[in-house]
Amino acid sequence: MIHPLPSPNPPLVRTASARIPTPYGVFQLSHYSDARDGKEHLALTLGELAGRHDVLVRVHSECMTGDTFGSLRCDCGEQLHRAMQRIAELGQGAIVYLRQEGRGIGLAEKLRAYNLQDQGFDTVEANLMLGHQADEREYWAAADILRDLGVQSVRLLTNNPAKIEELRTYGVQITERMPLPSSIHADNAAYLQTKVARMRHLMSLPPTPAALPPLAPELSERVEQLRNRPHQGPPPSVTLAYAQSLDGSLAAVAGQPLALSGQQSLTLTHALRAAHDAILVGVGTLLADDPLLTVRLAPGPHPQPVVLDSTLRTPPNARLLAHPRGLWICTTHHSSPARRQELAEQGAQILLLPATPQGQVSLTATLATLHLRGIRSVMVEGGPTVLASFVKEQLANDAVITLVPRLVGGLHLFQTTADSLPHLTQVAYTRAGTDLVVWGVPAWEAA
Fold first, then answer.
1. Would the pLDDT of 415 be above 50?
2. What's the pTM?
3. Which residues are catalytic?
4. Which of 3.40.50.10990, 3.30.70.990, 3.30.70.3270, 3.30.450.20 would CATH assign to domain 13-100+137-199?
5. How far apart are CA 305 and CA 315, in angstroms?
């Protein structure tokens, strides 16, 4: 159990609690007052915790830049939301939110440290140059909060062995360390490498994207225009993005991948992914390509991967199940409960949605659910059936179509009458190496 220890620190006082609905579920938020320094700490909890062992817990130190503003300089906001998601999937757990900004140095000093980092110093060097320790955080308050919640032992969501060691000195029984993988990209790569090299964090980092293939300026400008296009939701805005040959083929044979795009077009695809909150594909694409759907060739965050899978054909060894943000699978109530459980145990979050008369996942329900989960923009990347369905249901706001100078004679996107398809308006053309990219806004009124 978590033993009370003699301490000169006065105990924390729980002052208030309230129900907090979130995109991940309905949590309880409790406020704690620290009489020693006036700080306010929080506990975000789900389920009954009193007397429980092996409770999933994240002890998270405040990061206003990452948690509130979504800064990409660190992985704090991503870790906070991944912890909420993991706890929601389990149906029980706690996030102890400690008000110790910038590893304890405060927000103003943290911003000064950022300026030093922009001059080439790492995060440890910057703190030391400002007269601070590399890490000034304390964890006695977290131990007191866990005791107040009645938690007996914890499985701690962390990559930081120092946090484990510190919590144990305050009597917290940690039965297991649960890793929290982080997305790595151009803005946080050096920061994460410093955490591993100088602060003992237990993370397996992919190669640092230090030499990303540059995207042509006109392509970068178009991506930014798409990212900043005003949208009045709900539902989320939808961008259809795909490559086809000159004869309109997306693949040579159904169910088999075909590499069409050149290197510059691939870089554009990754930049488009980073410009959207979520990326959506059908299970056919997953079975044919086993894609990662991450951002590797351009700077920016990974989008949330979403798979439409009405009958749960997603294999339990799909690479998407190891995606840094976790996989959301949209399925229907007709899918197998046993398969839902199996995929949930592999880390997927199963979203049960209404089915169309044909038994497919409803696209309108999918977009409505994504909106409730904080998704404001979705990139639909495949496959042909899913892309065609979004067009037929008039759910596309933008289209980015890459034309590759090849003749394939294979699978075409639309097998329907021309009068049911839109025209593209606001059309622009850009080169991507030898490929031609067509940008436009579908307009059904003009069709």
1. yes
2. 0.55
3. 135, 137
4. 3.40.50.10990
5. 15
